[in-house]
């Protein structure tokens, strides 16, 4: 008799980007799956992404730092330790603070990392006239030893002091509201994977940023010319709720649920399809019931947008 066969559960791969909401500072944040949970937020005043400084961030400790080697900096008059930060996935520079007994991140642009200088043994640096020794921990991380009465005593690992780029203004005055007006769970970021190995983050349906994986930074870019506009959806991908009119933009706006994201958004009709917009003067009301299958009549009666028998949008010209 053959043994019973059990189905093997297939797990979907993690998305490259994740979006979330910081409830401490009430802003939208975006994260990258790099084996960590560090988030960035977008600052409208500077038009840049910044690392999100908040207690909701994953705290970096000395257990996350693997030391490679140390070199003396004439400018700082101190030893600078090159470490591999497992959280940020970067090679970073740190110094040992004798007062706190911990590590502090620094930037010495005159010192360039050289992998050939990586320590071959456990000992990475000897500091303060031989009274402090930095080693590679047995299970990773950094190990700090202090000489006391002729014996070596291990200094407890603590959180490190990092240098993350600070925003130009207060986050409270420069960030976007927590949620979009169309859904309680919809972030204002739109993330798209380009077939040409480019990953875009779109803000408010217009501004594109490309993520640079090697250094963990975002930079402003233009949409890939070989890719279709990710904000344009076809008729069959939208299930209408109702339509309204935006006086500010002089345009008919259709509230519809996307079959791609399962979220209700705002859409306008274009020659290419239905484009998602973020008009603040029209707000979705889930209590409104569609009174007619005809949603709107455009272009002096030559275009009719309606709900078909399948429940999705259709356009007659």
UniProtKB/TrEMBL annotation:
Identification of the protein by name: Uncharacterized protein
Domain of life: Eukaryota
InterPro entries hit by this protein: Sepa-1
Single GO biological process annotation from the record: autophagy
